[in-house]
């Protein structure tokens, strides 16, 4: 079957209106590179079936793309003002809104999440282009008084250069826009390797970038298979042309990329793994806490970096919370992502299902009880697992130490603020944390003492473009979004003027 036949079949099967969004090649220097001889399969995790084949970009082509990005940077950074860059990003935002339904379908097909969840991602993802369109003309610097009367110190923020972006499969649109929006606003050119599981969303963005007016070479996207992913990560890190790496993924891969970048002393920003605590104190509004737990524990079947991983419930409200939480979860619908009745879809692959099963078995062996779910659901598809709640989970269960990244909610009792703070902070990770209390003194006290980069007090919803997104410890460093987001893509230059 030819590439065009594959595209038409995909469009017809999934009712894609703008067929231009379906691409199977690499996007380099505003041109499409297609190689039907070397491809990899994109699978629908809801069925386990191949939906289309995508070009496995050769390393030599990627190397040339990096060189092209360097040539483009020298022109782009000098010829486009912040206001001009902002207009292009605003056009990109408008195009995403116009194509939101198609983008959401593509996301669901390759990722598996429910269509409602994908539509939410498109809105979230596009908001970064809107935000950074407004930030691009406002990259301010300082005039610093010198100790010497006849000197002036003037600073400027300049784009760092070519940026290498490595993104995960769980938010295949938003993890690109959050990085690309800031990099482009700063005046950088970018080369992007999307996750092997979800290249179609990234390639659809490339179509819209060109239409929005991205100059030649400002954006390149290289889809590659799992084996070549390792090579590309190493290439990005060791390339003297690429001046910065922005990576979202596991802590283990982050450590590897950091070591590989040492030879070129790149600027790095890493958003890595999490082990988020979710604390319900005895004075909490239980209904608010339950609704938040459903959202921030089970969103995308638990496959987000800021999902609650450990649910600590005060013993005085444990039974009430467990009962109401179980009732709320029982109303959710597990199924194929494009089914309008589905609220929660499959996991991304077999390894993800196996990890959930392993954590459940370990917790049960250590005394936990299954309050809801607990089983693999092969009756729906190969990678489905019940939304699962475990009660009376031991504090030494594996789920307390490892990020599950799946639909498992472990309920752990605690009796005092001192105890739960010790448990919550007993981890090397520090991405997100959540707690619920009506005591405002406690809100400030716990908020200041939780070892997390982002904390929700009486809310499970953190994500928005204005939030400085990022963690501490093994959860990484750097911030994305917010007024700080551009800083990671700039360098500060100081000019000292004497003889005034």
UniProtKB/TrEMBL annotation:
Keywords: Oxidoreductase
Protein name: Succinate-semialdehyde dehydrogenase
A GO molecular function held by the record: succinate-semialdehyde dehydrogenase (NADP+) activity
Pathways involved: Amino-acid degradation; 4-aminobutanoate degradation
EC number: 1.2.1.16
Family under the similarity heading: Belongs to the aldehyde dehydrogenase family.
Oxidoreductase recorded as keyword: yes
Span of domain Aldehyde dehydrogenase: 32-494
BP-aspect Gene Ontology terms: gamma-aminobutyric acid catabolic process
Positions annotated as active site in the UniProt record: 271
NCBIfam families: SSADH (TIGR01780)
Annotated source species: Pichia inconspicua
UniProt catalytic activity: succinate semialdehyde + NAD(+) + H2O = succinate + NADH + 2 H(+); succinate semialdehyde + NADP(+) + H2O = succinate + NADPH + 2 H(+)
SUPFAM superfamilies xref list: ALDH-like
Gene Ontology cellular component annotations, sorted alphabetically: cytoplasm
């Amino acid at each position: 079957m030819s590439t065009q036949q594959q595209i038409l079949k995909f469009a017809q099967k999934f009712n894609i209106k703008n067929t231009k969004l379906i691409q199977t090649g690499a996007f380099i220097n505003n041109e499409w590179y297609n190689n039907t001889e070397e491809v990899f399969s994109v699978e629908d995790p809801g069925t386990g079936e191949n939906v289309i084949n995508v070009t496995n970009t050769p390393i030599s082509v990627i190397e040339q793309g990096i060189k092209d990005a360097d040539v483009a940077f020298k022109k782009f950074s000098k010829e486009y003002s912040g206001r001009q860059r902002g207009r292009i990003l605003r056009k990109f935002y408008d195009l995403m809104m116009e194509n939101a339904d198609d983008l959401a379908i593509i996301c669901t097909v390759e990722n598996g999440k429910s269509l409602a969840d994908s539509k939410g991602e498109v809105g979230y993802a596009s908001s970064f282009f809107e935000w950074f369109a407004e930030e691009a003309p406002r990259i301010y610097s300082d005039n610093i008084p010198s100790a010497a009367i006849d000197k002036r110190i003037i600073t400027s923020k300049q784009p760092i250069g070519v940026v290498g972006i490595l993104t995960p499969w769980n938010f295949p649109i938003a993890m690109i826009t959050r990085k690309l929006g800031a990099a482009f606003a700063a005046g950088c050119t970018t080369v992007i390797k999307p996750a092997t599981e979800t290249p179609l969303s990234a390639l659809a963005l490339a179509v819209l970038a060109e239409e929005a007016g991205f100059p030649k070479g400002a954006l390149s996207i290289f889809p590659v298979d799992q084996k070549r992913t390792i090579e590309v990560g190493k290439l990005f890190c060791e390339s003297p042309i690429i001046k910065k790496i922005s990576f979202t993924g596991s802590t283990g891969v982050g450590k590897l990329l950091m070591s590989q970048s040492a030879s070129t002393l790149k600027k790095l920003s890493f958003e890595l793994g999490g082990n988020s605590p979710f604390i319900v104190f005895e004075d909490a509004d239980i209904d608010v806490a339950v609704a938040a737990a459903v959202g921030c524990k089970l969103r995308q079947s638990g496959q987000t970096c800021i999902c609650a991983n450990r649910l600590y419930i005060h013993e005085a409200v444990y039974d009430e919370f467990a009962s109401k939480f179980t009732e709320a979860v029982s109303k959710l619908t597990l199924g194929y992502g494009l089914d309008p009745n589905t609220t929660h879809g499959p996991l991304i692959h077999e390894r993800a299902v196996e990890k959930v099963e392993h954590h459940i078995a370990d917790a049960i062996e250590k005394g936990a009880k299954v309050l809801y779910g607990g089983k693999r659901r092969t009756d729906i598809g190969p990678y489905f697992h019940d939304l699962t709640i475990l009660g009376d989970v031991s504090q030494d269960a594996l789920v307390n130490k490892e990020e599950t990244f799946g639909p498992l909610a472990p309920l752990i009792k605690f009796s005092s603020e001192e105890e739960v703070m010790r448990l919550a902070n007993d981890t090397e990770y520090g991405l997100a944390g959540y707690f619920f209390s009506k005591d405002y003194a406690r809100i400030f006290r716990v908020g200041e003492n939780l070892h997390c980069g982002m904390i929700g007090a009486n809310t499970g919803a953190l994500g928005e473009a204005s939030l400085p997104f990022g963690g501490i410890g093994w959860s990484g460093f750097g911030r994305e979004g917010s007024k700080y987001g551009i800083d990671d893509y700039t360098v500060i230059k100081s000019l000292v003027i004497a003889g005034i």
